[in-house]
Amino acid sequence: MSNRYDSTRKWYAIHTYSGYEEKVADSIRQRINAVDMADKIFDVMVPKEKQIQIKNGKRKVVEAKIFQGYVLVEMKLTDETWYIVRNTPGVTGFVGSGTEPTPVFDAEIAKIKKRMGVEDPKHHIDYAEGEVVSITDGPFKGFDGAISEIDTQKGKIKVMVSMFGRDTPVELDALQVKKV
Fold first, then answer.
1. What is the tens place of the pLDDT at every residue in 48-75?
2. Kind of pairing, strands 48-55 and 122-124?
3. Is 174 exposed, middle or buried, given 0-12, 13-18 or 19+ CB atoms closer than 10 A?
4. Distance of CA 131 to the CA centre of its chain
5. Global confidence as pTM
6. CB proximity list for 152: less than 8 A, separation 6 or greater
7. Contact 49, 118 (CB under 8 A)
8. H or E element that contains 108
9. What share of the chain is helix, strand, coil (3-state, %, to 5)?
10. Sign of CA dihedral 151, 152, 156, 158
11. What is the C-alpha to C-alpha distance for residues 157 and 168, in angstroms, rounded to an integer?
């Protein structure tokens, strides 16, 4: 066995075609069972987190992929496992330097798992700081202002509204504004 292979159980990142992450993960799971690799390929994970997206004025909780185009595989790297994972349809390669797959550090996996397990979903706010918006609801309805701050935890934005000749920050819900 060459230096390329590490027979200890580690996580590796594999690059896939964008949008095929779930299909690749399912295919690898099926292959694990089909070729009896459960003692060499242990787990397959598509890192996702819950986000709140606002569409048509309604909040919706969706599971968004943290890393588009990547799937994580926990395995012992051998010729066999490399071949099975690498030749799964939709996989474009292992992440690593040159042709050598590089394991993902345990600390990074812990961070990703923690992020996936976050109970409170974050808001996905489709505005950028500095963008001018029109306030559609509340006491400042009809005012326009530039966004000065976005809080994705609470789903709130701060808009600088010009009142009495000076800019005043107004905290609003992301549902209370629309793009100009």
1. 998 888 888 888 888 899 999 999 999 9
2. parallel
3. buried
4. 24
5. 0.66
6. 122, 123, 124, 125
7. yes
8. helix 106-116
9. 20, 45, 35
10. positive
11. 13
